[in-house]
Amino acid sequence: MSKLINDLAADLTPVRPARTVRITALAAAIGAAVSLGVLLLVYGVRPDFLSALGTLGFWAKLTLTLGLFAVMLPASARLSVPGGQARWWGMAAGGLVLVFALGGVIEIAMTAPESRLELWLGHSWNECPFWVAGLSLPIFASTMLAMRRLAPVDLKAAGLAAGLMSGAAGASVYAIACNEYSLAFMASWYVAGIALSGLAGFIAGPFLLRW
User: Fold this and answer.
1) What is the pTM of this model?
2) Domain spans in the chain, listed from the N-terminal domain onward
3) CB 175 within 8 A of CB 62
4) Which of 9, 53, 170, 190 is deepest in the core (most CB within 10 A)?
């Protein structure tokens, strides 16, 4: 039996980490293009988009969402192959969220008490997480198709990482239309939408990635 296993393994060519990242990134880019098309068709771009490019709040949003995407992309790629681990990438993602959460706490503490709830909720707290999660679906679908070709082993962890990555990409797309600026809002409702996508990936991973 051991000879048979050795013979079967002799011709295996290890998949290079850079290749798995490229495959995962390409799948995410295809899904993001679909998500962007949906956003433009259904929601549209905020009318003051060009002036928003000159605001700190707009770039803070992209720092959070694209930062999480940049962290979870290699995590998803690593978990797409046997033996891959992503513990440090998960810690990096948690650290980025913590920085924004602390910034939000400081921001609220420096705001007049009567304005704190408005600062935290904004005017779209009840729809932002669902837009983020919804826009993540095309990205998640294309990523799942790519990851099935790469033979992940820990299907729950791979699904979670892919869901979080897709949520971060969906949040980046949604940021084009969103006109909320507070760190407290971003750390709460953007992260909630990304977490919803991650939870969906955790649940769906074992079904969609099963060999």
Assistant:
1) 0.89
2) 17-208
3) yes
4) 170
